Amino acid sequence: MLRRARFYTVLHLCGFLIIIYSLSMLVPALMGLLYGESDLYAFLKTFAGAFSCGLLLWGGTSRFRGDLKTRDGFLVVVLFWCVFSSVSALPFWFDQRLQLSVTDALFEGISGITTTGASILDNIDDQPKSILYYRAQLNFLGGLGIIVLAIAILPMLGIGGAKLYQGELPGPLKEERLTPRLADTAKHLWMIYSGLALAGTLAFRLAGMDWFDALCHSLSTVSLGGFSTHGDSLGYYHSDAIECVAGVFSILAAVNFALYFVVLRRRSLLPILRDAEFRFFALIVTLVVGYTCFSLYHSGLFNGREALVHGFFQAVSVMTDNGLGSAGFPDWSQDTVLLLFGASFFGGCVGSTCGGIKALRFLILRRQSSHEIRQLIHPGAVYVAKVGGRAISERVIKSVWGLFFLYIFFTCLFTWALVVAGNDVMTAFGTVAACINNMGIGYGATAAGFGGLNDVSKWLMCAAMLFGRLEIFPLIVVFSRTFWRY
């Protein structure tokens, strides 16, 4: 009876989250009205269908109440992201102007909501404003997670949201909160996130974009989503100022948002500058950007100024898994392209909107590996891995090693599967790197777009994008026999 009550509680939460998400469909519809579009049927139909289904699910289970356990939180997160992705695809499928198949619509929807930014559209410049804005909105909502937004409202349902929060936020230290109350934590995260988006919009506008493009690119940049309003991405503008703005905000979005909260509370930048993970992230960014700029200049592809601007922006964009592009990337020298695709696995800081494995995990692995080397030299010594003067527990270290193994394993598995599906090795690797890291820039046959992939490859990459967005463990947990056994 208790298990049944918890199951209905999970369905109740899913219904509520679907209702909340359905309301977001009204915003691109209003954007279409603002620009004089007459065909808004796709958004209104999606809103009506999702709202009705969510309301039925929420109302039909409203009499059930149960405490969520950790396993239930994972189930809600996985279930909702699957439903979330399906609902996100509906406007692309319903819109007759796009003429997309179910597979293509689902790929575009999942790519947007997982902040991957890999697109199957080949005529982006000609798309309606409502569709262009909707793609940017998908990036924005997926960036920090619609579930974190909903947690701020969950207390009114009489159900704690801590287990949802644990399943949604990235990183090995998921139990940490900014404030004692979880609802306040979610609100602060979204205030900081929205403030960064507003600042990005103003910065892009001052750099030369019109207001619509500035808004869309800001939503895509602070979410590190990568959808652009132009097929040539930022290369459309041929503007050093715009690329610099995008590069700077990509770095800002890759910083742990918890640090921004502390900075605002203390009115000092020292918490960021003293943070061990940020310093490690800044070091790797500096090395990657430095080599990229040097390579572009040394190869003769660009002069000194162009090499600095394009090298800074593109290296940061790929490494933080933003995925906006310019200057003909990835048709650069192979050593530079390989470095940047490898850096996309690094990502940014935990608690940010980036994809990849995250800087803190690499820092922990580096510290632990150093201790293992010392342990071999001095078997009787006792070493404790620390980050920022804080000892890292064995549970966290095991979790990091487990995630690292699974990440590499599924990267290899998806790459092999794409080769089996008929793609060459370089295309397969670049495409998987783009999708599992939620980075969005392909290589080989997908360098110019993902529309050329066959349907089997697209379905595989839909799975890869979800694996990357949820950091593998929630999906593995829900699909394990142990999860359903007890």
Automatic annotation (TrEMBL):
This is Trk system potassium uptake protein. Low-affinity potassium transport system. Interacts with Trk system potassium uptake protein TrkA. It is found in: Cell inner membrane. Pfam families: TrkH (PF02386). GO terms for molecular function: metal ion binding; potassium:chloride symporter activity. Belongs to the TrkH potassium transport family. GO terms for cellular component: plasma membrane. K(+) binds at T115, T116, L224, G225, N438, M439. It comes from Proteobacteria bacterium 228. The keyword ATP-binding does not apply. It is a multi-pass membrane protein. The chain crosses the membrane at residues 7-34, 40-61, 73-94, 140-165, 186-207, 245-264, 276-297, 337-360, 400-419, 425-447, 459-484.
